[in-house]
Amino acid sequence: MPNDSNIASSNVPPVSPKSGRTAPPPTERIPVLRWMRENLVSSPLNTVVTIICAVGLIFTVPDFINWSIIEAVFSASSHEDCRAASGACWAVVADKHRPMFFGVYPYDQHWRLIIALIIYIGAVGLTMLPKCWAYKFLIPLWIFTLFSTLSLMWGGFMGLEEVDTSQWGGLPLTMVLFSGTIVVGFPLAILLALGRRSNMPAVKAVCVIFIESLRGVPLITILFVAVNVFPLFLPQGLEFDKLLRVMAGMAIFFACYQAEVIRGGLQAISRGQYEAAEALGLGYWQTMTRIILPQALRICLPGIVNHVIAAFKNTSLVLIIGLFDMLTATTSVMQDPEWRRFTVEAYLAVGFVYFCFCYALSKYSQQVERWLGEGKRF
Question: Domain limits at 226?
Fold first, then answer.
């Protein structure tokens, strides 16, 4: 005779790991068909939207493939070969890729930028591996990366030609601005978020005024103030590099927006966590660094990544203060009358680079969420 407990357990519907509620067993055994049923035709509205999108893709994708691949020109001896073609001219990227991705940096010194990018991307790749998180070599690695990349780009020693920051441009400048914004802005965002939730009225008031004031103005205004207005308040003879001022302005702007995201994560932590820390005799900073902040940052990780991606795209705004980032360098290069009619292909190439970086950040954040969610009860 079967056990009653076995019968009872066999009749319990499976629990959905996302919602924590009981869910019926799937009717489709093929994962692709089940995904299509749940996401594309799950309701009348979704079905209509799916049909509209499918019709749009049918009318646009074949023409785009024909223009971008089948009838495209990938190499040409001159712009005349592209003018005779009916498809895209990707030869413009092959001909202009160095000024597009390296800006106005001295042409014969581009090898320094390539080495700097290799070192930087290698350090980022090692940092993203969870196996490396338990080791203590990441801090020395980033100190070496910072020193080596800036030394290669700046020069002025060991026989390297000195290159002023006003000549930095292209993809290396984008990565320098992005890295500086995150490295400086993220710790500041944490301090602002903690200050806004502080029990000390003076600290809370200063943080609230600082955050709301800077969140209420565009980033372009902050960059303009950092470049043109801030030097007016400095003593005579004291001057900061323009790139450093721009990086500081972008970091402060990023910190103000990121602070609100982190504050939302702090508010989601229950009071019991604070009381448990008090019962253990932990101080304020021990409580925050060991108990509260790790949970809060995990909760608001999607919002954090959204602003990180936005910070990467905001680097293109430096065009208003005369710095040639990747997008501005492309715009300047395409003023060449021989290749001017092929600006669409050049901008698509730059957009693809932006997409690769942003998409990689997005997918990596999803993977980090899965790593942090392992062993967590739903």
Answer: 79-105+163-373
